[in-house]
Specification:
This protein has five helices and no strands. The chain has 148 residues and is mainly α.
Length: 148
């Protein structure tokens, strides 16, 4: 892959992480309960970590990372998108977050599948895995607190 295309892909991924950070920061500010505020703040911090990883990209480190499969509860698969607004309920914020993570997971999975570069595939697999972890965390919370 040529360097220009590689840089464009990384910039795109960084922009996605910034948008996710902005979403979770906004969600933490409008959440009414301390547990929800903490959840969304934690997710925002993780998005910062993803962004920093992309900005300081070390393909040798990424090549050594062991990626564990993440279960998919598929709860978000049966939901419609919810547009974020400051007056959303906790359940709706969770729905919006799950759909956002689902789209990010699909994006990175599609990028991996459409790419032939081994190193980039590992990067996209790692990023997809991180999004899958967020999605799973949100789906478990939704299952335990909203669907109970």
């Amino acid at each position: 892959m040529e360097e220009k295309q590689f840089k464009e892909i990384i910039k795109f991924a960084i922009d996605k992480e910034i948008r996710s950070y902005d979403f979770y920061t906004s969600a933490s500010q409008v959440a009414k309960y301390s547990g929800a505020k903490e959840l969304f703040s934690d997710l925002a911090k993780e998005e910062v970590g993803h962004r920093k990883m992309l900005e300081k990209l070390d393909m040798e480190k990424i090549a050594k990372v062991r990626i564990e499969p993440v279960p998919n509860l598929k709860i978000s698969d049966y939901m419609v998108d919810v547009e974020f607004k400051p007056d959303l309920s906790y359940a709706d914020i969770l729905r919006a977050a799950m759909k956002m993570e689902e789209r990010a997971l699909k994006l990175y999975t599609d990028m991996k599948e459409s790419n032939k570069d081994k190193d980039l595939n590992k990067l996209f697999t790692l990023l997809a895995n991180e999004e899958a972890k967020h999605k799973l965390r949100l789906e478990k919370i939704y299952d335990e607190e909203i669907l109970k």
